[in-house]
């Protein structure tokens, strides 16, 4: 159920990849190759519902409608470009990088500067502003919380070396489609009509590198390269003999399918428990291991609650120390009659700790020694058990569920200091 929105969004993205090839002049074979090249990307982003899914879709909408604008000259497409930008901002602020690249190109290139004096360009800007405005107002009222979180995450990633593989990641993410992407970039740079589309890759590539971004941030820039590469390849194959054209096209399609199979092997939850594929995923795919055991985790918290005395349960709170635990408790907790979880992590902190000061607190994701500094008494009420022997944060690093009493500081004072990001 939770993967369905991601699957739908990525299905649309795949269609847009094929349509990009059509806008660039590609016929059906080129459209199919572009779609197949983008398929591994979409397969990964379909495997879990995250903001990256809709970031990819928003980039694709923006790029596709820009391509249509360049092909047709119909400036009304700026409204659609603005809508894509607006949706992208609501998904992930990194869309600012391709948008900035687009604006610089429009201002710098004489052939595009005329759009600054046309109403449809500004209608597109207005469309993006209207979509983004509620989010901006929320940010302003909440001390730009998301910007603080993004800043924290960026510093953490740089400190932990997560951005060190930025350039090699581009090879890892494109795999056998890398030659197609390179051909597409060269083709766009050589095209007088469609050169603008190259900025959706080149600009973010440079900016992410300078800002020490992570390698996967650039993934949404590849569908347009695949589309352009597919069209360029098809143009070259037209000059080949029929048998050679079919053979080369089959080799390219086979390479795309190999990429898709490799991605499916690594990312899709399709392996029997204990199999070689399962064991590899559990060791190398942190998203996969973090998807397992949430209903059981919440059930264990409910069991701890059930063992408390009526007095303890009367002024009870459940404090989760990471957003995964807080989200699971918010989703599955109502079925057990659990109170809404409280957490200092990300936007959970802004929701506060409830209408009254809790006296008894079930703490998840914490350590006994740390919590004894915060509460007058704590004890281990249960140890977290994740099915199938999965080793994740809950089962390895914070494997206990604690029951604590009497916060040492007044709740308002303690809560004001509890904001954390992750």
From TrEMBL:
All copies of domain Glycosyltransferase RgtA/B/C/D-like, residue ranges: 3-138
GO CC annotation: plasma membrane
Membrane topology: Multi-pass membrane protein
Cellular localization per UniProt: Cell membrane
Pfam families per UniProt: PMT_2
Keywords: Cell membrane, Glycosyltransferase, Membrane, Transferase, Transmembrane, Transmembrane helix
Keyword Ribosomal protein recorded: no
Gene Ontology biological-process entries: lipid biosynthetic process
Molecular functions (GO terms): pentosyltransferase activity
Transmembrane segment boundaries: 31-49, 79-108, 120-140, 171-189, 196-218, 224-244, 251-268
Metal-binding in keyword set: no
InterPro entries: LipidA_mod_glycosyltrf_83, RgtA/B/C-like
Protein name: Glycosyltransferase RgtA/B/C/D-like domain-containing protein
Species this protein is from: mine drainage metagenome
